[in-house]
Design a protein that fits this description.
Layout (H helix, E strand, L loop, with lengths): L1 H14 L5 H30 L2 H37 L2 H26 L14 H16 L4 H10 L2 H15 L11 H30 L1 H13 L3 H9 L4 H29 L5 H51 L18 E9 L3 E8 L5 E7 L8 H21 L1 E10 L7 H9 L5 E7 H10 L4 E6 L3 E6 L4 E4 L4 H4 L5 H13 L5 H11 L3 H10 L3 H6 L2 H6 L4 H17 L11 E4 L1 H5 L1 H10 L4 E5 L3 H16 L1
Parallel strand pairs: 1-4, 4-5, 6-9, 9-10
Antiparallel strand pairs: 1-2, 2-3, 6-7, 7-8
Helix pairs in contact: 1-2, 1-4, 2-12, 3-4, 3-8, 3-11, 6-12, 7-12, 8-9, 8-11, 9-11, 9-12, 10-11, 10-12, 13-14, 15-25, 17-22, 22-24
């Protein structure tokens, strides 16, 4: 239909300059009215098929706003465009022809856009084929069921007369603004009328419509019916005032039109929402189409006499009659019987279920996994690093509040109880109570367990088997695990005193050898070209700025790039061998596999294996990040408890 409407616009544009323009354009307008009505039915049906009932209520204000914007655009913006072209071309017919050609192009472009981007609702399909007789029967039954609904004639009366004042007003408002003061109008130019109605009016209408839709979705149609009735009627007084004073103040005119359009946008929501309310049940789409037919009729019939009435009584008396018609709006609204719950956001029963929140926290980042206890639902997030050894409790709480909770708040609404298993760097016994306190604020029913990142690595790598668990990331750590607990641990001591084999220590060794001239010239040249830092800047970032360990670890990609270089290779092997000799060999358990988590272990597996062979150690698992394996560990634990 949009394509046919575009073709009709092009036909009007083509025939305007001809000598028989009146008959030709009238024919094209008739065809366009048919196409438009058919398109309107299809658009209404699409709206009701594609959206849920609550979404229909929520967006009804916006929908009615755009309906009104289209009316104003046709009566304001297009007139403004044609008037502007008329000023430049001095040719009235040519100006309107160009305007309609532009509209034709717009509708053709709109057709192409909708073909590509409109969604395809599952309900939008042909349910069955039928004979011509069956189609006729269904057609007649649609009308029969429409008129047999409860309060059918009250509903029809409401649809026909609720907008009676607006039906009269909208036909004469633009003429009143543009008519000469001697005729009782305000004498605005075509461009000024276009600005008043097409810009200021549209803005007020948009705001009113949006607020109306939101209000109706919150409190329901019955609660907001009368505020909307007063909103669509009382602001019509502005035209009584304008016609009485015939003010020349452009500012005052714009302000009053804004008020009237805002009121209309808010009040029209009740009308659109009631049509949805009345159309509920079988044949919903067809019944809504019938409602829109009454809506069109409600504007057409009063509009047919609006011009004659104004010429008979003048603008001021005409607007007084409009205000008198507001009593009709009040009367028909008082007849309605509306379900108080209609339009409200329904409280849907949500199955409450226990969930687990797993965290693998480091200085650089924290990986989170929210999952159902059976493991069937998973959601992964990444936030800033959390390390209580170098961060305050307030900083940690801020990270959780600003980055984690916004990602999971919807899931938390259906969570009966939350089990949090937090594994993190710096989680020593002295700081665990503070971390637990922060985490318990995530959900009212929360059970929290805080353990070191090493325990997380051990559970991810070994499960319930005995082994040696190691972390090689920004820092390094290791522990002897008996299948339940870490029974022996060599302290890592941080990147200044220890952290052998870590990204920070590898970076420290690289910078040391670069600045002391122990690396080949080609390596040094590429290093300074890559990072463009002076010796003093290195000193500043390592010793005087926070995050020296992360700064040094940032050079590991350079090491990975040049790992085949003999000097870099030697640096890597020596650092990893140092890690083994000062950490792993202290456990005196060469019979156990040595498992690793962390990016350094993951990317430098070859060099790690080589260093292990030199120390006669056996490498087991190497995983980049433990979050999935930790989650699986706790899922298995939960299933074991249920059994």
């Amino acid at each position: 239909m949009e394509l046919l409407i575009g073709a009709g616009m092009a036909g009007i544009a083509f025939t305007i300059p001809t000598s028989h323009f009146f008959q030709s354009t009238l024919a094209f307008f008739w065809l366009m009215a048919f196409y438009s009505a058919t398109h309107d039915i299809a658009a209404d049906g699409f709206y009701m098929l594609a959206l849920t009932p609550h979404e229909q209520t929520l967006y009804v204000g916006i929908r009615s706003t755009f309906y009104r914007i289209a009316t104003i655009a046709g009566q304001g913006l297009l007139i403004m465009l044609a008037g502007t072209l008329e000023v430049f071309t001095r040719k009235i017919a040519f100006s309107w022809s160009i305007t309609f050609y532009a509209l034709a192009g717009f509708f053709i472009a709109l057709t192409l856009y909708h073909v590509v981007y409109l969604p395809h609702p599952n309900k939008d399909k042909t349910e069955r084929t039928a004979s011509a007789g069956q189609l006729l029967h269904d057609f007649l039954m649609t009308f029969y069921s429409f008129f047999k609904k409860p309060q059918a004639w009250i509903a029809i009366t409401f649809m026909l007369f609720y907008r009676l004042p607006e039906a009269l007003l909208v036909k004469m408002a633009n003429l009143f603004l543009i008519d000469q003061p001697s005729m009782g109008g305000l004498g605005l130019s075509t461009q000024e009328v276009g600005f008043v109605q097409g810009t200021v009016g549209v803005f007020g209408l948009t705001i009113g419509g949006i607020i109306g839709g939101i209000a109706a979705s919150k409190g329901g149609l019955k609660k907001w019916l009368w505020p909307m009735v007063w909103s669509i009627t009382i602001p019509d007084l502005v035209y009584v005032y304008l016609s009485y004073t015939t003010t020349h103040s452009f500012l005052v005119i714009n302000l009053l039109v804004f008020i009237e359009q805002f009121g209309y946008g808010f009040g029209f929501t009740a009308y659109m929402l009631y049509m949805i309310y009345y159309s509920r049940g079988s044949h919903q789409t067809a019944h809504y189409a019938i409602c829109t037919a009454f809506m069109a009729l409600s504007m057409m019939l009063p509009g047919m006499i609006a011009g004659w009435l104004q010429e008979t009584v003048g603008y001021f008396n005409f607007f007084l009659i409009v205000m008198a018609c507001c009593l009709v709006t009040v009367a028909v609204a008082s007849l309605l019987d509306i379900d108080p719950e209609f339009g409200k956001k329904q409280t849907v029963h949500i199955e409450m279920k226990p969930r687990m929140l797993i965290a693998d926290a480091g200085s650089s980042k924290t990986s989170w996994c929210l999952l159902s206890c059976d493991g069937k639902e998973e959601k992964y997030m990444v936030t800033k690093g959390i390390n209580p050894a170098i961060q305050s409790t307030d900083t940690i709480a801020e990270t959780i509040e600003q980055e984690l909770i916004p990602e999971i708040y919807k899931e938390l609404e259906s969570t009966s109880e939350l089990q949090i298993h937090f594994y993190g760097a710096g989680c020593i016994p002295d700081v665990i109570p503070q971390i637990e306190s922060v985490l318990k604020d995530i959900h009212p029913h929360t059970e929290v367990q805080v353990n070191s990142d090493l325990m997380g690595a051990a559970r991810a790598l070994c499960g319930k088997e005995e082994g040696i668990a190691c972390i090689l990331g920004t820092g390094s750590n290791s522990g002897l695990y008996d299948g339940k607990q870490i029974i022996k641990h060599t302290p890592s001591l941080g990147y200044i005193l220890g952290d052998e084999g870590s990204g920070a220590t590898l970076g420290k060794s690289l910078v040391n050898q670069i600045l002391k001239g122990l690396m080949p010239d080609s390596i040094k040249e590429d290093f300074f070209n890559t990072y463009n830092l002076s010796e003093s800047e290195f000193i500043q970032k390592v010793y005087k700025e926070p995050g020296g360990n992360r700064f040094l670890a940032s050079f590991t990609p350079f090491l990975y790039k040049h790992r085949e270089n003999s000097h870099i290779h030697e640096l890597l092997i020596n650092n990893f061998a140092d890690f083994f000799s000062k950490n792993i060999e202290t456990y005196d358990r060469k019979d156990l596999p040595v498992h690793f988590v962390g990016s350094i272990a993951w990317y430098f597996q070859k060099e790690l294996q080589e260093a292990a062979q030199l120390r006669r150690l056996h490498i087991g698992k190497i995983i980049q990040a433990p979050i999935n394996d930790i989650a699986n560990y706790h899922i298995n634990e939960y299933e074991h408890i249920l059994k």
